[in-house]
# Entry
Amino acid sequence: MTAPEREYLLDGVSINALPKVSLHDHLDGGLRPQTVVELADEVGLELPERDAASLGRWFRAQSDAGGLVEYLKTFDLTVGVMQTEAALARVAREFVEDLHSDGVVYGEIRWAPEQHLTRGLGLDQAVEAVQRGIDEAVAHVEASGGRIRVGQLLSSMRHNPAGGRAIAELAVRHRDAGVVGFDIAGPEAGFPASGLRDAFDYLASEWFPTTVHAGEADGLDSIRSALVDGRALRLGHGVRLAEDLQIEQQDDENTYVSLGRLSQWVKDREIVLETSPSSNLQTGAIAQWGDSIYEHPFDLLYQLGFRVTVNTDNRLMSGTTLTKELSLLADAFAYRLDDLETFQLNAAAAAFLPIEEREELADRIALGFDAA
# Structure
């Protein structure tokens, strides 16, 4: 696991054991520290720490940067050890095993194939290597009596718009072999979704779903571009949508809020927000509201009826799990089990799966919470 193993309880129930859905989880942000050490030895990559526990602490400390650009620099190490088929397959296999250990029953793993070609891999080879690792882990889970389903989300780097069409075509080529959606990632400010309009036009013509990082390191214009240019069905993070909310009156018992046209559209269309609380604090995504979990706009968005979901973003960098993120929110906002179930059902409804399979996933979650 990428965080210390412990049991988190709510209302006497283990959050660890509850069925969960993970929509926003980066492959290169979820390595085990020990795996980084071993893979770095294989390729001769120098590390700041040689002991796995110390390296894990280093990643967390470096990620508390207060800005996305600095936060992303930690990925130089993880991406650096993920440049061969064997390394990609291993990381993907362990990633899925850790999801299962955290109670995840459906997960979408996002990663950028274009960042894994420095040792001679082609784009298709990289995708196939990750899928091999996923398949091995799923088979291992099933052999142990468990069940998990995982799909790949292929990310194009938004600061390399010229490569967007190639990644879009790559995703469509593998749509029947494990790839379920498309994403754009990387530095957000100055690189709107409109820069990859050609890729998004192609994906729309192929009826292929997209989620777009927006509303994390940039504001409402970035979200507008994600929706208009990217045809985003979900918003990666999306927390800065709260900039479009106006608190008109507040007293001891009630808060009255008006919504702008953009936020009203997102709410009315039930466009899911893929929030990642710990990561949002680390990158400064919520800096205008505060610097603690208690000031995160998550609860305001939830109380207003937005389709919020809870995610880890990068388990290694945040030293977290989905269980831990849910526990943090429950402690901060006095949530109960039915709230946590709502977050999972929101995620299930937004999964890039056929409607019948989303309904089956929702039923599995409901059964799991009912049995808790």
Observations:
- The mean pLDDT is 96.
- Residues 93 and 137 are 5 Å apart (CA to CA).
- The first strand starts at residue 9 and ends at 10.
- The chain has 16 helices and twelve strands.
